[in-house]
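Name: Cytochrome c-type biogenesis protein
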Amino acid sequence: MKRILISCSLWLSLGVTWLLPAGLALALAIGEPLEFDGDAQRRQYETLTRELRCTVCQSETIHESNAELAADMRRRVYQMTREGMSAEAIVDFMVARYGDYVRYRPPLQANTALLWASPFLLFGGGLLAWWQVMRRRSRTDDEPQFTDQERAALERLRRGD
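Structure predicted for Cytochrome c-type biogenesis protein:
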């Protein structure tokens, strides 16, 4: 029993030792605390970094991502925020540079209409398929349809021949 406890504590200490550098790397990736002229700039920066998508990392914001491109995008958002640019101007700059994909909520345009309509189209298609299945089920009679040969065989079984 003592040997098992020593083994478990050894594995636990090895796991913590292995995870410690990962935690330090994440802390270093976040970087130095950023300085802003006011709370409005800080809120704008935080909002934008959580609304802009990292174009390298499929489903992460630039706030969450540790990719080099996300760090560059964060620096650029920080610089433009410090220069006093509006949130709309910063988003327009990022869209001009990276395309509408950089937005988590792309606007409704001709090129994004299918993206916005796809949930409704999928729901409508599922509803149509369900309706077709239910309609076919209601068409079938409760009694099975037999051929003449099957009816004769059933009649012979019923009579005991």
